[in-house]
Specification:
Layout: E1 6-13, E2 17-25, E3 29-37, H1 44-64, E4 69-76, H2 99-103, E5 109-113, H3 114-125, E6 133-139, E7 143-149, E8 152-153, H4 186-189, H5 191-201, H6 209-217, H7 221-245, E9 249-253, H8 262-274, E10 285-287, H9 294-315
Parallel strand pairs: 1-4, 4-5, 6-9, 9-10
Antiparallel strand pairs: 1-2, 2-3, 6-7, 7-8
């Protein structure tokens, strides 16, 4: 029996950009999409206004094309609890904004953490389809992770499972007895961190992560050091997660995570070096097959899964 298409407006709100599109499920096909800068410094209300406008425009366009929109999926770069409540305002200040009220006017809404949304996209449509257990890591403006088991992103008790890069990395020097530093992994290995660290050495030399990667590819000594050390630090954290969680594979997404060259090579080598057991040291480390659209597709898929269950409940009454 042929499954009727389920059209959802999927929205991925990250620290740098808002990507939104109409996604047709169950195939995960993007029918239309738009992208605008997030610019979170404007405040939560301004960001929400952009998100609502995109959702309304995409829904109207879908309706005009004969595709009924049956839901809205929102992936957000904040902590989100199992019930869909926004728990943090580290980047986007929405805890005091009527997010659910405004977006629910477009269609039934599901709110999910962006990393779990992206992991779901990979489980359903990407590189995770052939694995029962995989670790998804996203690297861009921020760095976060999600363990996925049997196609379901692990939410945890409170929804705070993705914060692998937010705590200070400090330890006591065995020679002098003093703490070595208070930097977080995001302050070492994320896109903004590459820019900040390179500009400390060469003020004004870069404006974006790709600028630093390009300088490294051209052989610039300062950028080579910054990029190599970032990959090393990231790999040590991911290697620890592999030791603890024992996944079948690691799947990497996000703008920086999908990059080629020294960052990826350094990260890959460091991850394998920091995996303790030879049993899983050779596990696949793959780029996300859904690419930069992972968060948008996954947010839509989360809404589809909930809507599909509602359809089933309605049909059995």
């Amino acid at each position: 029996m042929k499954t009727e298409p389920f059209n959802v407006v999927g929205i991925d709100v990250g620290g740098t950009k808002i990507a939104a599109g109409v996604v047709s499920l169950p195939e995960g096909r993007i029918c239309a999409q738009q992208m605008v800068p997030t610019a979170p410094a404007r405040g939560g209300e301004a960001v929400l206004n952009d998100v609502v406008r995109l959702a309304e425009e995409l829904a109207a366009g879908a309706e005009a094309a004969g595709r009924k929109v049956e839901g809205v999926g929102l992936g957000l770069c904040e902590l989100v609890d199992p019930a869909g409540h926004i728990l943090s305002a580290n980047c986007v200040g929405w805890q005091d904004q009527p997010v659910a009220e405004r977006l629910s006017r477009v269609g039934p809404l599901v709110i999910e953490a962006d990393v779990r949304a992206a992991a779901l996209a990979e489980a359903l449509f990407g590189a995770g389809r052939s694995f029962r257990i995989f670790l998804y890591v996203t690297i861009g403006t921020g760095i976060s992770s999600c363990l996925t088991i049997d196609g379901e992103p692990f939410v945890g008790a409170r929804g705070a499972t993705g914060t692998m890069a937010s705590s200070p990395l400090n330890w006591i020097c065995e020679h002098c007895g003093h703490a070595t530093g208070e930097a977080t992994l995001e302050e070492i290995a994320s896109g903004p961190a590459l820019v900040a660290r390179f500009n400390q050495r060469r003020p004004g030399a870069s404006r974006s992560g790709p600028d630093v990667l390009a300088a490294a590819a051209a052989g610039d000594a300062d950028s080579l050091d910054v990029v190599r050390s970032a990959g090393e630090a990231l790999g040590s954290a991911v290697g620890l997660l592999v030791n603890v969680l024992d996944p079948e594979a690691v799947i990497v997404g996000g703008g920086l995570g999908l990059s080629e060259g020294l960052y990826w090579e350094s990260f890959n080598a460091s991850t394998r070096r920091h995996i303790w057991s030879e049993i899983h040291r050779g596990l696949p480390i793959l780029r996300a097959a859904t690419g930069q659209a992972a968060g948008m597709i996954g947010a839509a898929a989360a809404a589809w899964k909930k809507g599909k269950d509602s359809r089933l409940e309605t049909s059995t009454r």
